[in-house]
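re: ur question from the group chat, yeah i did fold both. here u go
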Amino acid sequence: FFSRRRAAEPPGRPRFGWRSPLSYRAKPDPARSHLLPPSMSIGHFDASHSAEALSILEDEGQSLLGRAHKARRELVEFAFAPLLPDKVARKLVERFPEGALREGVVGFDSFARSGEAVLGAFGDWYSLLVHAAEWRELSLQLLASLSRELGALNFELSPLAVGGYLELACQHARLFLLLGSVLAGPDSKGRLAAAAYCRMHQLVRLSEPPGWLDVSRFIVEFERPLSRLQADFTSRVRLRVADALVPLSPQLAAASDPAYLRSEAVLSPLCPPPKLPGSAAAAAAAAVPGGSGSLRSGRPSEERSSEERDVAHEPPPLLAHLGRVRLWAVYGFLLCPEELSQPGAVELLVAVLRGMYVLPVYADYSILPHTEFEAEAKVVARWIAKKEDAKRFPGLIRESRLAAFRHAPAARASARASLCTKLSLLLSHALDSPTSLASRLPTLVATLQLTRAEVEWWVSHAGAAPKEVPLREREALDRSLFDPATVQALLRYACLLRRLVLREAPVVASSAGTRLSVARLHVLEELLSQLPREKAALPPRAELLLSELPVHLAAAAAPDAQLQGLRLNVLRLVYELSAAPCAALLRRAEALRQLLPELHRLSLLSSAIDQPQRLVDEACDLSPLFASEAKFMQAVYAGALSARPSDCVALLELACAGGVRRPLVDECLGRLSGRFSELLSQTLAALSSRRSGSLGSVAPPGAEASMQAALPKLCALAAALDQSPPLELAADGAATAAARLLPREWMGERLEEHLQQAVRGM
């Protein structure tokens, strides 16, 4: 599996891992790293190998999610009748998986004549099921290993280790819920396609397809996907979601308060953010008089270096991952409902469910989380040990659904408005001082991450109304809270910031390289000098990785530095230090506790040097919006065409960066072309009327007002097209090749077409 995954990876293609600003996947340096042996069981890896396995599995899981979404859409749209007569299709499903389709069935001859057509139509689907079944086993092994081997799950100290662990579990759930939506039910098209492929393979190739036993078992088990997932995670993984997230409850409540995000100091490029209640930073600030929060707290605040002030400007780890933490909580307790017995777990789940009534799975597919937690009393009693809590639980779930429907839309609308202000300030600051981008990179990435989370929430909730909510509540919902105008503004600012980072990439890389090779190297050496006894107690591999880090940092300022090895070593070291054998050392060694956040800082800065495009594309990944083509085209894009056509250029740029389907891009370009011609026609008609009026003719009523409305939009659209970088259009299978669109040339072609039409009409 792993050797095939590495061999099949196209050279130079960016691979993305879990959606964190700190997790950047890169191929390990063959001269310095250990590639995963295909035959080795993940359950027997040490912490270093677990870090590598996690990186590869998350990349592969993300690829499988994209393939599953595409296959689901194609199966729903596929016309089975020409290849599978009705009786043949019914018998294939009824006798699955043991019974074979016999030759006497009506329509069998027609089915047999479609041999290569059936194999070609369903071959990709069958291949996806084979890979998903294999990935499932490896993922469960790794998650079980991490559940045993990781020590205290402290998200503040090590968001990369804890986040990677929970994100893999979340990714596992999303993938198999998505596949289960195609496999579940008696009329399952996924089951029918797999059964038809197997029977045709027997007829044409005279053997069952490779892996059929595993695939058939997988299909049967995932007829009820959530029940199967809960059985897997209860018996094999024992996901420690309560250990990881319950300590974050006070911070989560504070960060979810709209008033917190409205604060001027939050996500500001000019001043440090306020501490979240209950965080380690807030406790340290309260313990130290004047609480500077600097890395070297013994120095007076006024003497801190500019580097320390930049560190103080970094947002809290929870804020950067706020949207993901909410999803981890809901998915984690769905996968392991027995974790609700832990103190504070029910309160955390209810608090998160008060902020959502739809749980996104992938793209346009979602489930209703409150409904999934509504179970019979005896089932809830197995989840929650205390009888009083078990009796209260159903009522809390019902109340949280109603509270989410009543209050969450207003809170999230306020958050989107606040983020528009934050992004605008960040953009202004970066335009005024491009050299500050490297020092404010954590704030920039955190703001883009929050923007993505809010857009995903809007996509999944706009137009959704659970039937369990009373009709009068659904009718009373203020639809203006889902106005796409703020989403449109968020996407505009995100696109402009992405474009700025890519344009100033050499400046950012130079500044980040200097910070790594001088300031961060000095901090790292100072921390290591405080660890003589602790280093001796560390595992040998961790000690070796620590000794190599200064060499990596010293080389960061070199031209064309490639820092994949640094990031991979950071990932390995984080898991070494987060493992159970190092738990006692972390509790008593302050320098080790400061080292873990420093490692995340190094990983982020290094990505700004050699992977700036990957960094911003990860932070600006809005695939759920573009996958929900109806909401994107009918709400966001249509609103931009009408009110602010120049925003359509930003939307197209983000869509092309996300690799959306070519037909969607072509439709966007077609509608933009029509709007461009309309604005041009209105402007030229108004100018013609003005000239006629100056010659004594009577101008049509409203001509001047029409020009005043159209001309600013036309000028803004022309400027946006003129300043836009080239758009990379993805290939659409074998029918359409990849291409590059130059917006300025495209605008020139539209102008020429319009002038030719005007001349012909004269």
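okk and heres the other one u asked abt
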Amino acid sequence: RHDLIWPPIPPNLLPPTAMLRQLGRVATPLARGAPRRMGGNLLLLRMISARVDFGNLKVDANLAALVKDEIAPGTGVDVAAFWASFDKLMSDLGPKNAALLKKRDDLQKKIDEWHLAHKGAPMDMVEYKAFLTDIGYLVPTKTDFTVATSNVDPEIASVPGPQLVCPIDNARFILNAANARWGSLLDALYGTDVISKEGGAEPGKSYNPVRGAKVFDELHKLLDEIFTLSGGSYADATLFSVKDGKLTVSINGSETGLKNAAQFAGFTEEGGAVSSVLLKNNGLHFDIIIDKEHPIGKAHKAGVRDVVAESAMSAIADCEDSVAAVDAEDKITCYRNWNGLMRGTLAASMEKGGKTITRGMNPDRVYTTPSGGTITLPGRVVLLVRNVGFHIYTDAVTHNGEQVPEHFLDAFVTALCSKNDFIERPGLKNTRTGSMYIVKPKMHGPEEVALATELFGATEAAIGLPANTIKMGIMDEERRTSTNLGACMYEAKDRVAFINTGFLDRTGDEIHTSFEAGPFLPKDEIKKQVWIKAYEDNNVDTGIAVKLSGKGQIGKGMWAAPDNMKQMLKEKIGHPMAGANTAWTPSPTAATLHALHYHRCDVFARQEEISKRPMAKVEDILTIPLLSRKLTAEEVQKELDNNIQGLLGYVVRWVGQGVGCSKVPDIHDVQLMEDRATLRISSQHVANWIAHGVTTKEQVMETMYRMASVVDKQNANDPNYVPMSPKFDGIEFQAACDMIFLGKETPNGLTEGTLIRRRREHKAANKTVNVTIEPAPKAMNQ
């Protein structure tokens, strides 16, 4: 039925492709309920795999084997009892999950109707707020309680520092994140744009001593600033030694020490000489490495070879926005990697310099204290795991023949993996306080947080963990959570250990929630409106008000440009200054540089200052950033180009290659670290403009054709890339069309349904599998 497709496909472009690709072209809106069980659209493409029966469950055989043979051994958990508990969970909580998703739809319908009834009228905030309260969207403000979360690791509770977010399905990437606790400052400065190339200081393929000298100049300035000496500069140091438990620095024939002697935390020795000096400020460490035999050390007066900075304190191993996991095969990869992390055994092989090397998890670091004792510092970050949202269902496990909420499965399996971290065994550990950390994304309001709390309790009971072992991270990225954040945290007051903000998803939900209110401003202007500042401030204000400070993280979002570190150093100090004790960075190198901001800003002192200001107003958060002027044709086209190029650039890798997070060039060829959130804001923005006449479907399609050619050129050197032009008949291109032209009908504007459906279609079309083609449930065709 190519006549049902928008845009209409000229007959000469209808490709004689394989049946699955041809049928997969049809794109119709997804309804709630049955369509959440992600298959095809008018067709369900269901991969046939062997199943193992556990009561009312049918579990993918390979997943069942993973749990039985790799995850459960040593935990004391009986596999049959584990699945029996999951069976019961589905009976107890499955209907609640479905009911909460229906409530989202019911609320959205009422909000759409309200905006349509008030079309063209000025916003009356009193009336609007009363309406949202009457329908149960807004609940009474609640900050009259204290977070009671206990046994939180210091990296999350009490030591501010950077946080990484990394796709869990890539073992090499997630190992890099796990090992990003310590990073070379020399490498971070030498290899980025922080140090200019002027005066013959280009990086080059081999070490450039001119650039190296510039790096050391910058490094000496940092040391002088953060670990100030009583006299002189580190640039003139000739010897580091320890005398009577104090650090002694020789400069021009005289000796000096730290202005603040308490910053000296430890040292190591080799051959009777100091080989490293451990310094501490605001809870974070610098390790000055001394090696006079090393080529770099030989060139330094005191033999300094490197300065290793404590960098990322924590990292989120992501099962959600930065991965492309669409079936049991993909989920097994995610779970296997998390299990390896929790057992301390994950390793990955890679080619380097013509040799195969194997990378594992870094050991802890041991130093002698100033008093002669021993101190051991973790060699790795503390890992959190982000499960998927309430709205995704999976057929990796079925219950009474129906797919199950994937976040239920995520909670059970990742928690069972984490039990390996709690048992007495030799090897590396993640937590030192007996806690596991699960980040919950895209929750809408306190009722959904309450269900997540109930889920965690059932999970703990199933695998034999003490109550409240599983700590909760609440992603403040949906409008109904932002406006009710205190009430959300109250539902998890014994578990919450993390809240944070994120512009892309939050703006995507802002647009979808208020879709019928009118056309939205261009994206860059949306960032400057009153609602975004109120949203960001409210997250910090609420966290401070309920005493999360010192018990968990108040976080800020990602710096998306990994190649622009100079600008990041200039701007990202705004996050700790805003009261956040963590913020996301796109790479270990970025974490090393961002850590400098936490040396320069005492976050807890800043939070104390912020606590004295009035809390952000919910009325400001509810102020919709609508367009109030007529845009020029050039402004409209520029915005469309930006949105659609970014959307296509990301979709083509997600659907075509199964890559959920990568550096994607923007329309100006600036590399940006993108994940699924970029699709939500871009698709909703374009769909909103179509609906309100700012643009037309025809203009959008012309832009898509043109931007597809741009993306093709940007990916020309990728041997695995399949161009979208000139036929535009690929599954990847159609996925992008679905997101835009079905954007209004897509529940909450979320893109996962389209991506999962199209990725499964792509996998079925490009490898030999047993596939059964079934008519979709009637609800799918409404």
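fwiw on the second one: Residues 226 and 546 are 32 Å apart (CA to CA). The mean pLDDT is 92. idk if thats what u expected
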